[in-house]
Write a structure and sequence with these properties.
Elements: E1 2-4, E2 9-11, H1 46-64, E3 65-68, E4 71-74, E5 95-96, H2 97-109, H3 117-130, E6 131-133, E7 143-144, E8 151-154, H4 158-175, H5 178-194, E9 196-197, E10 203-204, E11 216-217, H6 223-233, H7 237-252, E12 263-265, E13 270-271, H8 293-304, H9 307-321, H10 350-360, H11 367-379, H12 386-399, E14 427-429, E15 433-437, E16 443-450, E17 455-462, E18 467-471, E19 482-488, E20 493-498
Parallel strand pairs: 6-8
Antiparallel strand pairs: 1-2, 3-4, 5-7, 9-10, 11-12, 12-13, 14-15, 15-18, 16-17, 16-19, 19-20
Length: 500
């Protein structure tokens, strides 16, 4: 039943199962479809792909997961200079926020296979909240040295906080406890406040300590995360942040190879050899930050259908297949490149090869190359490197189809018992489109999906004095029952069945 107020329609839902059992137990391949059209390795069955995931997961957990009391973490070390660490912390670190974020995502996705996943996740979340950043106490310190610390420790690292927030959204969808959504919302708002350059840039900064300039690090460019943050909070800022990633790629990546620099600055953005003043090596090259981008872009394409993400990773994959790249052979993939494709380092590493493989899922032209490259990454030994093993596992989760999205076509839509006319909420539907009259909103998000959860339209609409209209796309099938959702920042959240 709906109760209409001035601009809000609320549905009363009876909870059939009120325990917090996982709703998406591993394996999920084939159960939560991608929006983007992707391929998988053709020389492995789905059962074999699932087994690849669990084998790497078992190794990852046994080697790197640890706990102290009710707090859990992933054993990891940093690579900063002594002056980068809090007092007395250099070479005494227990974990790093980047590794922590990877771990929280992994345990949320592996629930169902691992009966302890929720306990571990909760323990990691407790540690995250206790180890506070110095610039914004709702962010996590980039380094943890004392497991019992409960206060502001060190500056933040943007990538760790972004992954932690995204993992909390996964946890909310996985276990249904609103505490995860509340924690995610608090963290997302803190990221926006302290780890994002505001208007006119809408780009990530380097951490809560980096308040000036417009320097940005490409390993923090996570458009899929930003799309999920938009869905979770209703804040159109995150749509702008996702779009900004693609603007940055157009400005500073190589037009032929598609390769991306580790750092960028300026407007328009260019590769930044100073690494935003941090002094990191090879900052204007495709190195140990940018190497994660094909995976992040593949996630945005698979989960949200971002065409610009596909365009970028298709360009990179085409270069890799060609004579100036890896010539279609995974053993030729090296650990770093100049943006023009010249080799930077002569050795190979899984943290470069695995994200390249994820990028290959976006186009069937990569099928043979993907088959070979996946064979390399699924069997690779990552020794005792916690980052390499995490990236190996995260990319295999995506390639195997087992990484579902907290908000996308993979989500199960709410299907209402009755059609509801929501004129009091300022949303009316005709045969040709949608009319909006919502004085309290400036920008609303309009989503239309079919009853199987496939997203057909996802668009932010700017209202002029509260009024706007949207015509149904010509590609939308007529006489098909659909789900319409209109969400605003100031309280509007309306859903109904429609029949164009």
């Amino acid at each position: 039943m709906f109760f209409n107020t001035k601009n809000t329609a609320v549905i009363l839902i009876v909870c059939a199962v009120c325990s917090f059992a996982q709703s998406r137990p591993f394996p999920q391949a084939g159960k939560n479809g991608f929006i983007g059209t992707v391929i998988k390795p053709s020389n492995r069955t789905q059962d074999q792909l699932n087994q690849d995931v669990t084998k790497i997961y078992d190794s990852y957990k046994s080697r790197f997961h640890t706990q102290s009391g009710n707090k859990h973490y992933i054993k990891a070390t940093g690579n900063g200079e002594p002056e980068d660490y809090p007092s007395g912390c250099y070479k005494k670190e227990l974990t790093i926020s980047e590794a922590h974020g990877y771990g929280m995502i992994i345990f949320a996705l592996m629930a169902g296979y691992d009966k302890d996943a929720k306990t571990i996740f909760d323990g990691m979340n407790e540690l995250r909240k206790a180890q506070k950043a110095t610039g914004n106490s709702n962010l996590m310190s980039w380094v943890v040295c004392n497991i019992n610390a409960n206060g502001q420790v060190g500056g933040s690292a943007t990538d760790g906080d972004l992954d932690n927030a995204y993992a909390l959204l996964l946890a909310y969808k996985q276990w249904g406890d609103s505490k995860y959504l509340n924690d995610a919302t608090t963290l997302i708002n803190a990221i926006k406040s302290s780890e994002m350059h505001g208007s006119p840039y809408y780009r990530t900064n380097l951490g809560d300590w980096n308040k000036s300039g417009n320097a940005t690090r490409s390993s923090d460019w996570m458009p899929g995360h930003f799309r999920a943050f938009r869905e979770a909070t209703g804040d159109a800022f995150w749509s702008q942040a996702a779009d900004t990633v693609y603007n940055l790629l157009a400005q500073c990546s190589n037009p032929t190879t598609g390769l991306i620099p580790d750092f960028a600055k300026g407007q328009p953005a260019k590769a930044d050899p100073t690494a935003g003043g941090t002094g990191e090596d090879d900052a204007d090259k495709y190195s140990y930050n940018a190497c994660r981008d094909p995976w992040r872009l593949a996630l945005a394409y698979a989960h949200h259908g971002d065409a610009k993400a596909k365009s970028q990773i298709d360009k990179i994959s085409a270069w890799l297949r060609g004579s100036s790249g890896a010539k279609g052979e995974p053993n030729n993939i090296k650990a770093g490149y100049y943006l023009n494709g010249n080799v930077l380092n002569e050795w190979s590493e899984i943290i470069f090869t695995a994200p390249f493989a994820s990028g290959m899922i976006a186009d069937k032209a990569n099928q043979s190359f993907l088959d070979k490259t996946y064979g390399t990454i699924r069997t690779a030994s990552s020794s005792n490197n916690e980052y390499a093993t995490a990236l190996q596992l995260l990319n295999v989760l995506l390639i195997s189809g087992n990484w579902w999205a907290p908000y996308s076509s993979g989500s199960t839509p709410i299907v209402f018992e009755k059609l509801n006319q929501v004129k009091n909420a300022g949303v009316t539907v005709s045969k040709s489109g949608i009319n909006l009259n919502i004085p309290d909103e400036k920008v609303v998000q309009v989503k239309i999906s079919d009853t199987k959860g496939r997203l057909l339209l996802n668009k932010d609409i700017t209202l002029n004095s509260g009024v706007a209209s949207l015509n149904f796309p010509s590609s939308m099938t007529k006489s098909q029952l659909l789900i319409l959702n209109v969400k605003g920042k100031n309280g509007l959240n309306v859903s109904q069945k429609i029949l164009p």
